[in-house]
């Protein structure tokens, strides 16, 4: 580290901004950050916290305007990295302002390697705190004027080795559960009925319209009053799809899913069981059956009863 510490105090040359301080960039920056200030909107001055922005290289790394220094202000970090400290994390970024900048000013900064601390061990690992100080100037006819300063400190370190995990012998793969359906006050009656082996359909008390999926109001007469009727569970395949991809355990693949038209006239979507995907066809007679599954609930394991439909003889 002796050669690296010899760099402390070194001054690196100018880095110029591509563009003069200007209102469009300041306006967009203020909009993104959420700052409203009539002085910025009028173009009188620009936000002071933009100081570093005016001299950034843009989307291309190290793409600085002609006349900028070709020295690397971060050479100390490269030398420390070569000695076995590959990781870096920023720990301080402190801006100080001498005054407001105004549209039309041209800005540059110089860099000084301010300090390299002694080797420290942290939760991240072992390494060195490196402090750089960038001083910003506005180019003026009577001489460059200091307008602010940025203190930038990083931790250059060798990552701590994670504790070895104990070997797990013959660990069985976790059992994949079905996702739990969303249950609300509007749909709870449907799932409670399924647990009892009953296929319940919501019915409007005002006009008698059956509706599924359930909802708080009738789409026909807009009444909020409703009750339920128990379906016979018989119906036909009105339409269907066969899911091939993606293959999501624990569902079977290929996975036939039908739009079932019930005898009562309403329709619902459900998984088809007891039939090969190639044998499903529109108009096929089906009957509901209720099957219990373990599901992954937010509080842990739970179970759910799902209405599924099986083809029956016509």
From TrEMBL:
It holds the Pfam family OB_ChsH2_C. The keyword Zinc does not apply. InterPro entries: ChsH2_C, ChsH2_Znr, HotDog_dom_sf, NA-bd_OB-fold, Thioester_dehydratase-like. Keywords: DNA-binding. Residues 229-290 form the ChsH2 C-terminal OB-fold domain. Residues 191-226 form the ChsH2 rubredoxin-like zinc ribbon domain. It comes from the Bacteria. One of its GO terms (molecular function) is DNA binding. Coiled coil: none annotated. This is DNA-binding protein. It comes from Azohydromonas caseinilytica.
């Amino acid at each position: 580290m002796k050669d690296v510490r010899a760099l402390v105090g070194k001054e690196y040359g100018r880095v110029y901004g591509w563009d003069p301080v200007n209102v469009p960039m300041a306006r967009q920056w203020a909009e993104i950050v959420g700052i409203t200030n009539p002085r910025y909107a009028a173009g009188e001055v620009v936000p002071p916290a933009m100081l570093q922005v005016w001299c950034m290289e843009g989307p291309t790394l190290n793409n600085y305007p002609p006349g900028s220094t070709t020295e690397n202000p971060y050479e100390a970090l490269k030398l420390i990295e070569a000695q076995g400290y590959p990781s870096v994390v920023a720990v301080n970024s402190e801006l100080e302002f001498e005054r407001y900048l105004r549209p039309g000013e041209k800005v540059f900064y110089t860099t000084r390697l301010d300090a390299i601390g002694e080797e420290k061990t942290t939760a991240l690992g072992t390494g060195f705190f490196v402090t750089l100080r960038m001083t910003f100037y506005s180019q003026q006819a009577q001489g460059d004027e200091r307008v602010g300063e940025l203190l930038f400190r990083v931790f250059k370190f060798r990552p701590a080795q994670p504790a070895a995990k104990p070997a797990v012998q013959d660990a069985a793969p976790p059992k994949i559960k079905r996702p739990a359906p969303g249950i609300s006050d509007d749909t709870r009656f449907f799932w409670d009925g399924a647990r009892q082996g009953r296929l319940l359909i919501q019915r409007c008390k005002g006009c008698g319209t059956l509706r599924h999926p359930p909802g708080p109001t009738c789409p026909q007469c807009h009444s909020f009053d409703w009750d339920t009727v128990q379906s016979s569970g018989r119906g036909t395949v009105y339409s269907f799809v066969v899911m091939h991809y993606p293959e999501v355990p624990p569902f079977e693949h290929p996975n036939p899913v039908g739009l079932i038209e019930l005898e009562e006239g309403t329709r619902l979507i459900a998984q088809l069981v007891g039939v090969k995907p190639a044998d499903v066809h529109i108009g096929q007679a089906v009957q509901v059956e209720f099957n219990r599954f373990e599901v992954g609930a937010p509080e842990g394991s739970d179970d759910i009863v799902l209405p599924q439909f099986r083809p029956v003889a016509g």
